[in-house]
């Protein structure tokens, strides 16, 4: 049986600030990795789910927002843009700047896009529209390609602004509260 007090999904406060558009992100996968690490929901430890089948690397630090829950039975995913790779289970204060709407095997699997609030190279960015077009293209290409050799389909829909992202965040917090309280 899992213990909420030792599991970062349940124990770490998401520190959601809808005025500043900031939230705590818990990183599972460092930028530049081919390893697909994932939080083990029972133990709160990081497990190696798999090594990516395709010759691609995560374009940003990837993780989840604690105390959130989505229709895919996982916490809400977040990509945190930074000039550095962070280690798994690192808590990063992240400024949400948008969202990538995505379908994984036909099911919604949104990814919030954020910048590391403590990284001066990106902390000034407040909107997904400020990202270089090539960075958006890299994010799209990675998620459309990373499961192809597993014969799984992923479709990246639209990148949307911070207002839509914060609405998705609020819904994920509300669903967590209804599910786990």
From TrEMBL:
GO biological process: phosphate-containing compound metabolic process
UniProtKB keywords: Cytoplasm, Hydrolase, Magnesium, Metal-binding
GO MF entry, a single one: inorganic diphosphate phosphatase activity
Binding-site residues, substrate: 36, 50, 62, 146
Binding residues annotated for Mg(2+) 1, in chain numbering: 72, 77, 109
Cofactor dependency: Mg(2+)
EC number(s) from the headed UniProt entry: 3.6.1.1
Main location: cytoplasm
InterPro entries the UniProt entry points to: Pyrophosphatase, Pyrophosphatase_sf
Domain of life: Bacteria
GO cellular component, one term: cytoplasm
Pfam families assigned: Pyrophosphatase (PF00719)
Cell location: Cytoplasm
Binding residues annotated for Mg(2+) 2, in chain numbering: 77
Catalytic activity as recorded in UniProt: diphosphate + H2O = 2 phosphate + H(+)
SUPFAM superfamilies hit by this protein: Inorganic pyrophosphatase (SSF50324)
Protein task: Catalyzes the hydrolysis of inorganic pyrophosphate (PPi) forming two phosphate ions.
Subunit record text: Homohexamer.
Family: Belongs to the PPase family.
Name of the molecule in the record: Inorganic pyrophosphatase
Originating organism: Thermaurantimonas aggregans
């Amino acid at each position: 049986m899992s213990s909420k007090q030792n599991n970062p999904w349940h124990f770490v406060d998401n520190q959601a600030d809808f005025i500043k558009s900031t939230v705590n992100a818990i990183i599972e996968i460092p930028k530049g990795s081919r390893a697909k690490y994932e939080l083990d929901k029972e133990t709160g430890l990081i497990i190696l789910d798999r090594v990516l089948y395709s010759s691609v690397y995560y374009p940003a630090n990837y993780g989840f927002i604690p105390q959130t829950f989505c229709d895919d039975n996982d916490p809400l995913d977040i990509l945190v843009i930074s000039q550095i790779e962070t280690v798994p289970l690192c808590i990063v204060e992240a400024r949400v700047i948008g969202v990538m709407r995505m379908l994984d095997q036909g099911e919604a699997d949104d990814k919030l896009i954020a910048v590391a609030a403590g990284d001066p190279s990106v902390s000034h960015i407040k909107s997904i529209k400020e990202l270089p077009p090539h960075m958006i293209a890299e994010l799209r290409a990675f998620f459309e390609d990373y499961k192809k050799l597993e014969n799984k389909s992923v479709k990246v829909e639209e990148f949307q602004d911070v207002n839509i992202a914060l609405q998705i965040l609020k819904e994920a917090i509300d669903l967590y509260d209804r599910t786990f309280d």
